[in-house]
Amino acid sequence: MDGTTRQPQVVALSAIGTRGVGLLLLLVAFLLLPLVVRSPYHLHLVILFLLWVGLGESWNLLGGFTGQVSFGHAAFFGVGAYVTSLLYIGPGVPLVVGGLLGGLFAAVLSIPIGLICFRLRGPYFALTILGIAEILRIIAINWRSLTMGPVGVLFPPIFRDKLPFYYIVLALAVLTMVVVWMTLRSKAGYYFRALRDDQEAANALGVDPTRFKLVSLVLSAFMTGLLGGFFAPYQGYIDPDVVFSIPDVSIAMIVVVVLGGMGNLWGPPVGAIIVVVLSEFLRTTLGEAHLLVYAALMIVIVVFLPDGLVGWLARLSARWASRRGPAAPAAESVPATMAPGGRILARGDRLAVGGNPGANGFLLRAEKVSKAFGGLLALQGVDVRVRPGEVLGLIGPNGAGKTTLLSVVSGFERPTAGRIYFGSHDITGLPPHRITHLGVARTFQIVRPLKKMTVLDNALTAALANTLHVGAAREEAEEILRFVELSHRRNTLAASLTLEERKRLELARALATRPKLLLLDEVAAGLNDAETKTMVGILERIRDAGISIVAVEHVMQVIMSISDRVVVLNYGQVLAEGKPAEVAQNPEVIQAYLGVTEASDRA
Amino acid sequence: MGGLILVQSVLNGLLLGGLYALIGAGMSLIFGVLRVINLAHGEMLMVGMYVTFWLFTLFGVNPYLSVLISFPVLCLLGAVTQRFLVGPILRKGAPEENQLLLTMGVGLGITEVVRLLFTANYRTFSTPFATATFTVAGISISLALLSAFAIALAISLLLYAVLLKTNLGRSLRATAQDKDAASLYGIDGDRVYTLAFAIGAGLAGAAGSLLLPIFYLSPTVGASFTLKAFIVTVLGGMGSVLGALVGGLTLGLAESLGAVYVSTAYRDVIGYLVFIIVLSLRPSGLVGRSRF
C-alpha cells in the first residue's frame, strides 16, 4: 500500500525533470512491485489503480484533449466486458482475442453515435452517450438468452492468484498511456486540441471537426472496451448494473480525470490514486456516503482548479521556481536563427505558392452572391473578382457586408444565392476545411487563438494542413513565426499574448496553411502607429511572395499602401470599384462614409 | 379490443407526457436563458419528491398542495446553485464542458446528501388516492395521473403567460437573447440568471410533487429524469418552453405505446430511440426554431 501511494510524486517529478530516466525507473518499479506488495488485498488495490489509469486515459483522450465530454463511457466498458465474457464462456474464444474483439465492438458502436452527435454543437454528445449506455443496460437485463439477464455472467477461475492479472493490467495501462502520448504527438493529436480550444478556428485551419472528433471517440471507445474485457475475468462475474453503471463506471471515469487534470497525460494516474485510496478509506469510515466526497471534490475542482491537481501543482512549482531564482529556464529565449527585423522571406521562398487561375484568368470569382440573415440582406448580388497575385482592399461602412463576404467565400456561411469559384473549382457551400485545403485561408476579425496551445503549436497545427509529418510542420511553423516576428514567443501559451501579437499569430496561422488566397479581416484594427507599420511591412512581403489578398480594413493607411484595387461595399452591394486613389475621390464613396442623407436613397 | 388498448395507451402516454413537459420546461428555461444544461435537474426533481413525501408522512399534506412548498424550496436550491457555483464559472468564461461537469457534480452531491439523510431505501407513496381509477367508455383513467397532468399543464401555461406578459418574463427573454444588450436597458443580467435557474429548479420540484403518487422514490431516481428532461428539451427544440410541451407529449406517447406494443421492459429504450431518431433527422427539434 505504501509502495503505491508514493508513486504519483515520482510521476509528477519525472514529468518535469529528466523524463526518460524517471519513466524507466517508474516502469521498473511497477514491474518489481509484486515483490514488495505481497498481500492480495493490496495487490488488488494496485490492480484497480492501473485499471482506472487506463480508463481515465481513454476518457481523457476524448474529454480532456478533444473537448468532448462523455457521460456514458460505461457503454463501451460494458460492451467490451460482455463481448469478451460471452465469447469465452460460449464458443471458448481465448481471452486475448476476446478482449480485442470487445474493444473492436465498442469502437464500431461508437461510430454511429459520433456521426449523429458530432455534427451538432452543444451538449448533445455528452448526453446521447448516456442514453446509449442506459439502452445497453436495459438490453443486457432483458435479453436473457444472450446475456443471462440481471443475474449476469459467471467466469470460471482462470488464474490461481492475482499476479498474472497484475501484469496484464499493467501492460494495458502502459499501453493506453503510450497510445495517448503518441496520438498527442501526431497530426491527429494537434487537431484534437485545436478542436477543443476553438472549433471554428480549427475548421478555418483545415481541420474537419466531425472526422477528427470521431477518430478520437473511436480510439477512446476501443481502449475502454479492451479494459472492460480485462475487468470481466478479473472480477469473476459481470452483470448489467455493474458494467453499465452510470455512477460506478461513467461518472467514476470522469472523476478520475477531473481530479487529476483534464487534458493532462499525468492527470489520470494522479486522479486514480486519489480515487482508489480514498474509496477504500471512505468506504470503511463513511459507508454508502463516500460518493459525497467525490461530488464535493468534483465541484471544488471545477470551480477553483479547472486544470486539476496536476495542473495546480505545476503552477505552484512554476511559481515557486520563479521565486527561488531568476535563472529559470527561459521559455521566452530568442532562437538563434531569428534574423533581425524579420526580413526573412525572400521572393520565391516556401510561401510563394502563386496562383492557379481558372480558365478566365481569375483566382477568385464571386458571382451575384447574396446572403440573407432572416429578413436582413447582408449581401445582395455582389460580384467580386481577384486576379492571381492581386491585393484587393474591401472597404465600406459598418454593416456593409464585408465580413459576411469573407465568411461566405471561406465557407463559414452558405450564400443564399450566387456562386463562388476558386480557380477552376466551384467552392459554393463547401465546408471551411475543404476550402482551406484548396488554398484559401482566412483570419478572424475577433482573433481566435487556440488558447491552451503554445504559439508554436498554433502555427504548427495550421501547417499540418499540408502534411502528415509533424516535424516538417514544426519547421514550417518556425519559419512562419520568424516571418511574422513572433519567434521569441513560440513557447508562450496563446492565451497570454497581447492583442497585437494575437493579430500576428492569426496571420501566421493563416499563412501556415500555404494559401494561394488570403482573406484578412481587419488585421490592423486596434494597432498603434508603429504596430501598423510592422503589419503593413509583413503584408507587403506576403504580397511580394505572390499570394493574393482580400483585405477588409478600416485603417485607410493600410488599404492605400497595399491594395492594387479597392472594392467599396455599402448596404450589401458594390458601391464602387477601382484604384485606391480613384475610389478615395469618388463622391458616392465619400457620401456613404460621411453619411449624407441621400445615401439612404440607394437602399 | 385492439382499438381500446390503443386509445388507452395513447391517453396514458399523453397524461404522462404532460408531466414530462413540466420537467423539460424547467431545463429548457434554464438553457434558454443561461445556455447551461442543468445536469442536476432530475436530482432536483428527486428532492421535490422527498419534500412531498415527508410533508405527507409527517403532516398529512396532500401531495398536490405541497407543490406550493416544493416549488419555493427548489427555487432556493436552484438560486444557491446558480449564485455560488454556476455563476462564478460562467463569469470566468469556462468552456462548456466545465459547466456540464459542474452541474453533474451538483447532481451527484444532491443524491449523496439525500442518501445520507434518508438512506438508499426505496419508498412508495401509499394512499388509496394514489391508486384510484375511474372508467369512461371502457377506458380506465388513473386519478393521480390525471390530476398530475392537469396541474402540470396549468403550471406550464402559467409559466408561458409569465414569460410573455410580465416584466419578469420580458427581462428573462431579453437576457436570453443577449445578456449584454439587456444590461444596457437596465436589466441586471446576473440577477436574471439567478431567477431563471431558480424558476427552472422550482419547476423540477413541482414536477416531483406531482410525480410522487405515481412513481417510487429513492435517492437515485434523479439521473434517469435528468436524461428524460434533456430528451424533452431536445425534442421540443433547445430553449423553447412551448416546445417542451410538444417534446414531453411525444416522449410520453413513445414510452406508453412502446410499453404496450413492444415490451414493458423496453419502454425507456423506445423513448431513447425516438430521441436519437429526432436528433439525427431534425436536430433543431420537432417545433423548429422559436424562443419560448
**If strands are numbered along the chain, what order do they take across the biggest sheet of chain B?**
1-4
Question: Strand share of the residues of chain B?
Answer: under 5%
| Main sheet properties of chain B | 2 strands, antiparallel
What is the tally of helical segments of chain A? 26
Helix/strand order of chain B? HHHHEHEEHHHHEHHH
CATH topology of the largest domain in chain A: ABC transporter involved in vitamin B12 uptake, BtuC
Assigned CATH class of the largest domain in chain A: Mainly Alpha
Annotation, overall tally of beta strands of chain A: 12
Question: What is the CA–CA distance across the termini of chain A?
Answer: 78 Å
Low-confidence stretches of chain A: 1-10, 327-355, 598-603
Which bin fits the share of residues in helices of chain B?
Answer: over 70%
Rg of chain B, Å, rounded: 19 Å
Give your account of this protein's structure:
The complex is a heterodimer of chains A (603) and B (292). Chain A is elongated, with a radius of gyration of 29 Å. Chain A has helices at 2-5, 7-16, 19-36, 40-63, 74-89, 95-117, 124-142, 144-147, 163-184, 187-197, 199-204, 209-235, 240-243, 246-260, 267-285, 290-304, 308-324, 402-409, 432-438, 455-463, 470-483, 499-512, 529-544, 556-562, 580-585, 587-594, and strands at residues 153-154, 237-238, 364-373, 376-386, 391-395, 417-422, 425-426, 440-442, 517-521, 548-552, 565-570, 573-578. Chain A has a 6-stranded mixed β-sheet, sandwiched between helices. In chain A, helix 6 (95-117) packs across helix 7. Chain A has 2 domains: 2-318, ABC transporter involved in vitamin B12 uptake, BtuC (Orthogonal Bundle); 348-451 and 507-602, P-loop containing nucleotide triphosphate hydrolases (Rossmann fold, 3-Layer(aba) Sandwich), CATH 3.40.50.300. The longest helix of chain A has 27 residues, at 209-235. Helix content of chain A is 57%, strand content 10%. In chain A, a hairpin with a 2-residue loop joins strand 11 and strand 12. With 603 residues, chain A is an alpha/beta fold. Mean pLDDT of chain A is 86; it is low at 1-10, 327-355 and 598-603. Chain B has a single domain, classed as ABC transporter involved in vitamin B12 uptake, BtuC, CATH 1.10.3470. In chain B, strand 2 (133-136) and strand 3 form a beta hairpin. Chain B has a two-stranded antiparallel ribbon with strand order 1-4. In chain B, helix 2 runs antiparallel to helix 3 (67-91) and helix 6 (143-165) packs across helix 7. Chain B has 12 helices and 4 strands. With 292 residues, chain B is mostly helical. Chains A and B meet through helix 7, helix 14 and helix 16 of A and helix 3, helix 4, helix 10 and helix 12 of B.
